[in-house]
Amino acid sequence: MKILIVGGGMGGTIVANNLARRIGTEVRAGKAQITMLSASDRHMYQPGLLYTSIGRLAPDELYRDQRSLLEPEIEFHVDPVETFDLDNNRVVTKSGKTHSYDQLVIATGSRAAPETIPGLAENSVNCYTEAAALEMLRQVRDFKGGTVAVVVGVPHKCPMIPLEVTFVLHDYFKDKGIADKVQFQYTYPIGRLHALAPVADWAKGEFARLGINTTTLFNMKEVDGNKIVHSEEGETVDADLLISVPPHRGMEVIEKNEMGANGFIPTDRLSLRMEGRDNVYIVGDTTNLPISKAGSTAHFEAETVAENLAALIKFGTTVRDYDGKVFCFIEAGKERATYAMFDYNNPPAPKAPNKAVHWFKMAYNQLYWASARGLL
């Protein structure tokens, strides 16, 4: 059986490694083959960009060589896919090579798209790429006081980032000694402070304690050159420093191949198969599922897919469904954090932030690489 994995991020890497350990015997015997196609030879720890944006994690600490993270049984190529020919079970890459498959895993991820809102890219900073995080660091360091507005578009990668960036910047300016000169304005597109009601309730108390102003039902329409954000609802927010969580889209190759609206592929919530396709699995941000686009989502989905692919080889059938499991840390300041764990049937219940969870998250910055290898 030929298994082709497109995408070398968290989801694709865990699928490949988990699967390689499950079917190593079959691969070595020539009964199975695992191939990964990636757009880069480097793997980025994307959650670390938040810390880069405040000068606490250097850019070179975000990367590892992708080949070094993969089990030796995995055939790896830096050659991104340009065409998906699903009817004929094959893809064509940028180099012009054709790769056939029996089972396909698509884990191409998502991208921030500030350009979809007029003026947002030109007048705000964010922490979704290395370049963006470094520009955010420059502006944050140069900031002397005024209004910091955090504006949020949907959907976006990492469900907790709007809260985290607000809390982290609040403590950053406090440590800098200018907290009395800074006012925070936080906006969210729906009628509460977060998509998850228990998280929103928890954040409401935290924001009140810190004196952070909030506006809900605020959907960005455009940003003018004076950093005034206009909403679809007719309201405005003025900012001296505008921090954005831009709306996200799937990768261009998915849109180009017309596989899903805005680059997100229609996916069955339990099997994680592409709708209408029995041999195509979707993992991580690439799905259109209305659940958190988070690293842990990709992790738990990847484990499900890897186990089922191994079961197809060994038993001739799949053996489990994805239960919607997600686990997210929530940085609540410089040395305080909590977490939210939930699934399709059980909502999150964030606890009071503490130092222990914060330091566990800091440790995970290094443990991530073991997680990507499927060892955690």
Description:
There is one protein chain. The protein has 376 residues and is an alpha/beta fold. It folds into 2 domains: 172 residues, FAD/NAD(P)-binding domain; 136 residues, FAD/NAD(P)-binding domain (3-Layer(bba) Sandwich). Helices cover 30% and strands 24% of the residues. The protein starts with a strand and ends with a helix.
The averaged pLDDT comes out at: 95
**Structural shape:** globular
Question: Could you say what the CATH architecture of the largest domain is?
Answer: 3-Layer(bba) Sandwich
Report the total helices: 10
Q: Would you tell me the structural class of the helices and strands? A: alpha/beta
Assess the beta-strand content as a share of residues: 15-25%
* Count of strand segments: 21
Tell me the CATH superfamily of the largest domain: FAD/NAD(P)-binding domain
Helix fraction by DSSP (H/I, runs of at least 4): 25-40%
CATH class of the largest domain: Alpha Beta
Keywords summarizing the entry:
376 residues, FAD/NAD(P)-binding domain, 5-stranded parallel β-sheet, 4-stranded parallel β-sheet, 10 helices, 21 strands
Compact description:
With 376 residues, the protein is α/β, with parallel strands linked by helices. It is built from ten helices and 21 strands. It has helices at residues 10-22, 24-28, 49-52, 120-123, 130-142, 161-176, 197-210, 252-256, 295-314, 355-372, and strands at residues 2-6, 33-38, 42-44, 63-65, 74-78, 81-85, 90-93, 98-100, 103-106, 110-112, 146-152, 182-187, 213-215, 220-223, 228-231, 236-238, 241-245, 248-250, 280-282, 326-331, 337-342.
